[in-house]
Design a protein that fits this description.
This protein is α+β, with helices and mostly antiparallel strands and 275 residues long. Helices cover 31% and strands 27% of the residues. It has one domain (33-266): Glutamine Phosphoribosylpyrophosphate, subunit 1, domain 1 (4-Layer Sandwich), CATH 3.60.20. The protein contains 7 helices and 13 strands.
């Protein structure tokens, strides 16, 4: 028992005060790493462009931020694949790695059709996501995946996989926190702007759209990761220095109407030596 002295006029009175309970904090889970991000895929005349910001947030928006590449890709003898994701970092990485390991077993692995991706995704969902279905919504793992597949001189697929949903999109698709912003800008440029132009030109539009999302959406940021899958079988990642040069160039472009802005960006694509 703790005895507290109470000050009175004659300094002779001693009051005994019972101990007070200490407030106990409500236990909370440690914050999880989240891809609170923007990812985008564009089907072009000669391939597919897939892009994402590089910011990774932990816990609540703005709590802790880092950067990393968010696009995994693989080049096979007759096709190429690139994967981006939004959601819980570890689960996004796990999904991307399992898809690549299952589809790109050898350099001569067959082209992964839509139904192959769907069957593989359902297997991953049943093993790694379904056991958490009884948990509160905020405690369930999340992985929204964007998968781009380009066959050499052939088929193109842009697939969003989210839970048990598998949807093929044309000519573009956005995922993550910047989905609405990206879709709005892309629609303003016009649907035909993407599939009638070459990949290295559309890569410029992708860099511009991602830069606008990073400037206006709180949980998007960092650099921009861009991967090009070309129909001739070549793949190309556009690195940070090349992206920053484009972003600076596009800042200086006069912002007029959407279609005129698209024309200016298409006329100033990234300077890629091997394209």
């Amino acid at each position: 028992m703790i005895i507290h002295l109470t000050k009175v006029e004659n300094w002779r009175t001693v009051a005994v005060k019972p101990p007070q309970p200490r407030p106990r904090p409500t236990p909370k889970r440690l914050p999880r790493r989240k891809y609170v991000t923007i990812g985008a895929g564009f089907i072009c005349r000669d391939g597919i462009v897939i892009a994402a910001d590089t910011q990774e947030s932990t816990g609540y928006a703005g709590y802790m931020k880092g950067e990393k590449f968010k696009i995994d890709y693989s080049q096979q003898s007759t096709w190429s694949i690139a994967i981006a994701g939004a959601g819980d970092s570890n689960y996004v990485e796990m999904c991307a790695q399992q898809i690549l390991r299952s589809c790109a077993i050898t350099h001569d692995s067959p082209y992964p059709r839509f139904d192959v991706i769907q069957a593989l995704g359902m297997e991953i969902f049943s093993r790694h996501f379904l056991p958490f279905s009884g948990y509160p919504r905020d405690d369930r793992p999340i992985a929204d995946m964007l998968i781009a597949i380009q066959e050499k001189n052939g088929r193109q697929e842009l697939i969003e996989w989210n839970g048990t949903s598998f949807v093929s999109y044309f000519p573009f698709k956005f995922i993550g926190a910047g989905e609405q912003m990206g879709s709005h800008l892309a629609r303003g440029f016009g649907l035909s702007t993407f599939f009638t132009n070459e990949t290295h030109k559309v890569a410029g539009l992708a860099i511009y759209i991602i830069s606008q999302a990073k400037a206006t959406v709180e949980t998007c940021g960092g650099n921009t990761d861009v991967v090009i899958l070309r129909s001739d079988g070549k793949t190309r990642r556009i690195y940070a220095g090349e992206v920053k040069a484009c972003e600076e160039k596009y800042r200086r472009i006069h912002l007029g109407k959407s279609h005129s802005l698209a024309d200016r960006i298409l006329a100033s694509p990234p300077e890629l030596d091997d394209v």
